[in-house]
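Please fill in the sequence for the structure shown.

STRUCTURE ENCODING:
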């Protein structure tokens, strides 16, 4: 099975998040991760790596860094731990939409150039989301928006565009739909719990409406 493109998070052994990327390849010995701002960790350093799979859950590994640069990180697998089957972390279909608070591109806040920018969220997980927008986004763009659910406190979510999916309209070659895969910046425990509660409730709603 081709697992390339999965979300990957790299932590130190204290579980402090050091970087986020996408899976380039994995075999019995080595995990290869690609990205644009990966941590440059010294060779031989032990790290904790989580691979997020929308179908199976989160697979944790204890690894030793081989080569690490901003664009690619190779790690030798020491231990594969049990899959964390957190159903709430898996992708859930939604009908959510939000107006963004900020759009950051190349380190510059360009929100003033995108008035009334709105995103639609066809699916959401605790690690990220798939969105469409009324403005064109670029890889590594960062967006911020407020998420409100039920009685819970309003939370600010920060996300980065890590993938662009373009699909041609089969009935009109001049029309093209564009979706953007985004990963979330590390969240505070409370913020993550709000997202997880929404996902749990949404799953129940979808199940009951089948």
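FILLED IN BY: designer on duty
SEQUENCE:
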């Amino acid at each position: 099975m081709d697992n390339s493109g999965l979300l990957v998070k790299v932590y130190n052994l204290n579980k402090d998040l050091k970087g986020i990327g996408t899976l380039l390849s994995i075999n019995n010995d080595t995990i290869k991760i690609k990205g644009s701002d990966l941590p440059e960790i010294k060779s031989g350093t032990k790290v904790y790596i989580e691979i997020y799979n929308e179908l199976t859950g989160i697979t944790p590994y204890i690894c030793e860094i081989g080569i690490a640069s901003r664009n690619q990180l190779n790690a030798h697998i020491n231990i594969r731990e049990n899959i964390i089957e957190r159903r709430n972390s898996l992708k859930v279909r939604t009908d959510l939409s939000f107006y963004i608070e900020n759009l950051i591109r190349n380190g510059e806040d360009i929100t003033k150039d995108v008035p009334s920018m709105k995103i639609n969220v066809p699916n959401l997980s605790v690690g990220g989301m798939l969105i469409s927008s009324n403005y064109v986004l670029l890889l590594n763009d960062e967006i911020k928006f407020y998420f409100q659910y039920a009685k819970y406190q309003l939370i600010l979510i920060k996300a980065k565009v890590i993938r662009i999916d373009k699909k041609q309209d089969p009935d009109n070659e001049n029309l093209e739909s564009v979706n953007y895969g985004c990963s979330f910046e590390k969240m505070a425990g409370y913020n993550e719990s709000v997202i997880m509660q929404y996902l749990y409730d949404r799953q129940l709603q979808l199940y009951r409406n089948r």
